[in-house]
Amino acid sequence: MKPRPGCIATAALLCAAAGAANAAPLTFNTALPISKDEWILREQFVYMKSTDDPSPMNRRMEVSGLMSVLGYGVTRDFAVFAVLPYADKRLSMNVGGADATRSQSGFGDAMFMGRYTAFEANATGHTFRIAPFLGVKAPTGDDHASDRLGRLPPMLQPGSGSWDWQGGAVASFQSLDWGWDVQLAHQRNGEANSFRAGAVSRLDLSVQRRLWPGTLGEGVPSFLYGGLEANLIHVAKDRVNGADDPNSGGTTLFLTPTVQYVTRKWVVEAGIQIPVSQHLNGSALRNDYILTTGFRLNLGIRIIWLLYEIERWATSKTHNGLTG
Amino acid sequence: MQRPYLKHLAAALALCLPLMAFGAERQVVDIAVKGMTCPLCAYGLEKSLRKADEVDHAAASLKDQNVRIELKPGTQPDIARYKQLIHDAGFTPGEAKVSREETK
């Protein structure tokens, strides 16, 4: 069984899963409030590269993904989120002295999440909140994709075919000058096609500092934030036909410098996740970096519908690929 | 003889309309807001306050940690409603102050 570098990417992608209202973390943002009756859209382009292969196959994995996150404030304290990933996955390797590439693109599994703000303390110029969240990932993506070599391995399938559950809690402090967020999350995966992806446990920390303007002016000026995030992610071994795959799972620590420009109506953001420590099992493929960039908008429902139509039109022009 | 007179009266009234609007008085409410820490949050708060029909304009200030609500001329403020809308937007409302100002 091949190792699954996609585990880390999937965890990173899926945790880009919740609201948006502030200098939120880039690599997780289950943290911040959405007002009652407010819609928020987040689009993130994620590029992941893994080329450090301890095996002689010289495997190279590239994943380009677009994460669409839609959040809605049902009540003041309860918000719901839907996440739809679209990814292009490409695995190249050396087989018998020749390079071969297998690839697949398409919509992945949709995730639905609810978050409840259980504790809140507001004061002049700062806020502190604690919110548990619970999510379910539905098997909406294709999990039977194949190419001329046969059925693709799970790491290249757009969908998992299984129902997966994610839960955790997030605490956030935000002032006018700086903020921090800490998240503890666990994802348990179901079984499909005699395969169960390893459970993902993660501890995330984010610190943001307002870099500009140095002194606050009147009204509502735009903010430029610089930040640093840390993600400690442990992925359990996959199970194939009821047995552990020794070449899967492990623990990775990412450090991510970030930059965000926040205006009244939109946010642009970028960051690069650098794995500073990787203890992966067996011949699991090591990650090089994950680049994330995107924007967030505070929207009306008509604009959300228009963006959905544009994305549907754009993705209808994509196709599956196989090169040898 | 009567028709030209009515025409002149209507024309004079039409010319006076802008002058009547100028100098009309409206009420302004300033409410302290706790927990407001970023530009996007402030915009959400302003949008929330515009749900009240009598609100003409709402402008938050991060520096002063308050929101200024300008009412349409001739309308009365509903402080309890504004505080509820601030609460719904995820913040904690503080002291409210009502004043009058002339529209320009």
From TrEMBL, chain A:
Pfam families per the UniProt record, alphabetical: Phenol_MetA_deg
Signal peptide (UniProt feature, chain positions): 1-23
Keyword Signal in record: yes
Domain of life of the source: Bacteria
Keyword Signal tagged: yes
Sorted UniProt keywords: Signal
Name of the molecule in the record: Outer membrane beta-barrel porin/alpha-amylase
TrEMBL record, chain B:
Matches recorded under Pfam families: HMA
Molecular function terms, GO-annotated: metal ion binding
Signal peptide (from-to): 1-23
Domain HMA, first and last residues per copy: 27-94
Domain of life of the source: Bacteria
CDD domains registered for this protein in UniProt: HMA
Keyword annotations from UniProtKB, A to Z: Signal
Record keyword Signal present: yes
Entry keyword Glycoprotein: no
Cited PROSITE patterns: HMA_2
Name of this protein: Copper chaperone CopZ
Taxonomic lineage from the root: Bacteria, Pseudomonadati, Pseudomonadota, Gammaproteobacteria, Nevskiales
